[in-house]
């Protein structure tokens, strides 16, 4: 745990462990939409407030400006240049915000792919994240088939998807399955109109707050 976290904890001692709930998954799966749908339900069920933190909201305009300066393409979020030079800095900044809130005993609902951190196991390790060791960590991994994700990306026409769509076969290599872990709860978001969707979604929320 870093010095900033320890100092904040000493000033604001905890009464109960804070929660970190992450909505993760690959592009086009509906992470943000489902996280926003889940947030008021989680608040109602737990009786606790949450800080909502979305990677695209925090770094969208900043990353666009940086990539435009460096490469002339403000929409690039997937090229080797972005992945090797900017990606980890963005995630580090997000985790700094998470760390500061958890140290203040403020629950965090975080939205972002976090595929590297999940594959490496870092996301399950409070010490590696630099967050309080008793933090309650749960992850909703949003599943969606590759072709359906592609259709949704084409339909939403977000400029940040242009590189993915133009280099689809290369991008598919990064759409890997998450590891099996007790803190990962997978949710099929392929059909919001299916009969059991709401029941499945409520089951997901119950798993995240248990």
- CATH class, please? Alpha Beta
Largest beta-sheet characterization = 5 strands, parallel
Beta-strand percentage?
5-15%
Total helical elements: 11
The tally of strands reads 5
Low-confidence stretches: none
**Overall pLDDT, averaged?**
93
Level of helix content?
40-55%
Spatial extent as radius of gyration: 18 Å
What's the assembly state of these chains? Answer: single chain
> Largest beta sheet: what is the strand line-up?
2-3-1-4-5
Order of helices and strands: HEHEHHHEHHEHHHEH
* N-C termini distance: 25 Å
| Name given to the CATH homologous superfamily | P-loop containing nucleotide triphosphate hydrolases
Overall form: globular
Descriptive overview:
This protein is an alpha/beta fold and 210 residues long. The chain has a single domain (17-209), classed as P-loop containing nucleotide triphosphate hydrolases (Rossmann fold), CATH 3.40.50. 52% of the residues lie in helices and 14% in strands. The protein contains eleven helices and five strands. It has helices at residues 3-11, 31-46, 55-71, 80-85, 87-103, 115-120, 126-129, 146-156, 162-166, 168-172, 197-209; strands at residues 19-24, 50-54, 107-111, 136-143, 184-188. A five-stranded parallel beta sheet has the order 2-3-1-4-5, with helices on both faces. It is globular. The chain starts with a helix and ends with a helix. The relative contact order is 0.21. The mean pLDDT is 93.
